[in-house]
Amino acid sequence: xxxxxxxxxxxxxxxxxxxxxxxxxxxxxxxxxxxxxxxxxxxxxxxxxxxxxxxxxxxxxxxxxxxxxxxxxxxxxxxxxxxxxxxxxxxxxxxxxxxxxxxxxxxxxxxxxxxxxxxxxxxxxxxxxxxxxxxxxxxxxxxxxxxxxxxxxxxxxxxxxxxxxxxxxxxxxxxxxxxxxxxxxxxxxxxxxxxxxxxxxxxxxxxxxxxxxxxxxxxxxxxxxxxxxxxxxxxxxxxxxxxxxxxxxxxxxxxxxxxxxxxxxxxxxxxxxxxxxxxxxxxxxx
Length: 286
What we know:
Helix content: 10-25%
Number of strands: 14
Strand order of the largest sheet: 4-5-6-1-2-7-10-9-8
Shape: globular
Strand content: 25-35%
Order of helices and strands: EEHHEHHEEEEHEEEEHEEEH
Largest sheet: 9 strands, mixed
Distance between the termini: 29 Å
């Protein structure tokens, strides 16, 4: 099996490209959040539509406020660790989506045969034994093809460059409920990486935080979109992010038109993530 490792602007994403089909994994969802709004008293609407709507909204807001109230930061961070989360997808902006899809889904040989650009021939990575190659898609995004064992998830990893690794690790542990899976320093090539996620790398898509010695900030450009993460409760998630010192750029609530509940946040380096309600996300896939 090979994996595609895509660098866009200052971020990167890796996805598996198996020789044989990878079995799709069922999405396991909790229904704990689904009944949160049903715990309050039944609401009887009067004949006045506006008045009834106001009462309904006020009652729902009160119920939600009670449901997202944590006694302490420790309780909030503990809840985030137990929440049912996983990386859902990554958004990058391209100029021609059909052209991009056709290019990135091929191996190095096929990309070359189709007129793609190979910027690094296959060979061992510096300081290691993993065989890699670099190619570019029509929009100039770089992909790293690397040989590695297969994983249940077709998306292997997403790489983000950060200016303060310890600060970033703390944020993703507390605000996002991730675990530090491993950390590796490479003094010879002056960088350190930390792998963060909701489970082992061989079974889950993970986040790779990369710190390059002496670089404290990066130009985000306009190609990077966001990382989407599933959660059982977007309201509690937003509160946890605020308690951890993070920035919520879209308050928790339903999206107009489709009613999927989300909340959007920025990490300390300005990288955006969106938390999506698990049950709503499953309904979108139906």
